[in-house]
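Q: Okay, next protein. This is VOC family protein from Streptomyces pactum. I've checked the sequence twice, so it should be correct. Can you predict the 3D structure?
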Amino acid sequence: MFAELQCVVLDCPDPARLARFYRAMLGGAVDRPDPRWEVNQDWSTLHLPNGTVLAFQRVADHRPPRWPDPAHPQQFHLDFAVADLERADEQALALGATVLHDGDGRSWRVYADPAGHPFCLVRHSAPDAPEG
């Protein structure tokens, strides 16, 4: 091993707005002082409770992916485990997410964040919970 993941960076038109969107979903601290980077109008960060850092970078001509259109590929997406998929759906939509795919009754749904990045909410069962 010769490298360590520092953060995941998402391009977007409004870094501060997208940082606040993900903070409302995941918790954490927006733009916490960190010697690794400078926070400004073009760069915002979210330090998550588990230590992961999401960063948001302004791109003037941001063109969001159009999942599942291969002409505008998603390039990557984030999966978030949730205990109650219905409640998480309501909360994500209230924050400004849009549904891209309702999962067809499965244990996951696909959304776009306010900048158009796809993400999934995936129902997570406790390991010792009976299935059914």
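A: Here is a summary of the prediction. Residues 87 and 93 are 10 Å apart (CA to CA). DSSP finds two helices and eight strands in the chain.
Q: Noted. On to the next one.
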